[in-house]
Design a protein that fits this description.
The chain is α+β, with helices and mostly antiparallel strands and about 190 residues long. The chain is built from 4 helices and 6 strands, in the order H-H-E-E-E-E-H-H-E-E. It is a multi-pass membrane protein.
């Protein structure tokens, strides 16, 4: 009885075909078709082996080092545009050691027009689009593109229209040297005296 059930099951499995066969009368073999098939299979095999090799040989190497030099200063680069005239704006840094770093040393206060020109607005829109796409995608190509994007010049293009509009904002740019402790950067009304 068990043998009979086993034979029926085996026959059923042999007859089961998820993909229907094309009748032999529809199939026509040719040398060019066989050559194309061989080239396609060879290319697929080669690409599969290459992808596996890249996957196997790729690794991340992390190196960390503790900063032992507490006395040196850290340079912070700043480029901010504030919608207020330069005569009313001041910037400074106050750290946890209660050390005040005055901004007069390395920062430049430059009067500018706050609204972007059409070319600058297009640049900003494109930059935002690229950054949003990079946040969504997480593949190796995007990591490579992100590193290339960071190394590329991402500076705002210069204003191309020479408008007669008077400056209504202040661009604060330059650098500050601060202690290697936590602190706060303040942009306030009024200058540090």
């Amino acid at each position: 009885m068990r043998r009979l059930n086993r034979k029926k099951t085996l026959n059923l499995m042999k007859e089961l075909d998820a993909f229907p066969k094309v009748p032999e009368s529809y199939v026509e073999t040719s040398a060019s078709g066989g050559t194309v098939s061989l080239i396609a299979f060879t290319t697929i095999a080669f690409l599969t082996i290459m992808e596996f090799t890249v996957y196997r040989d790729t690794w991340m190497k992390y190196e960390y080092e503790v900063d032992k030099d507490f006395t040196s200063k850290l340079r912070i680069n700043i480029d901010i545009t504030v919608a207020m005239r330069c005569q009313y704006v001041g910037a400074d840094v106050l750290d946890l050691a209660e050390t005040m770093v005055a901004s007069a040393d390395g920062l430049i206060y430059e009067p500018v027009v706050f609204d972007l020109s059409p070319q600058q607005k297009e640049w900003q829109r494109m930059l935002q689009l690229i950054q949003s796409r990079l946040q969504e995608e997480h593949s190796l190509q995007d990591v490579i593109f992100k590193s290339a994007f960071k190394s590329a010049s991402a500076a705002l293009p210069p204003r191309e229209d020479n408008s007669l509009q008077s400056p209504d904002a202040c661009r604060i740019h330059g650098h500050l040297y601060v202690n290697k402790v936590a602190g706060n950067f303040h942009i306030t009304v009024g200058k540090y005296v």
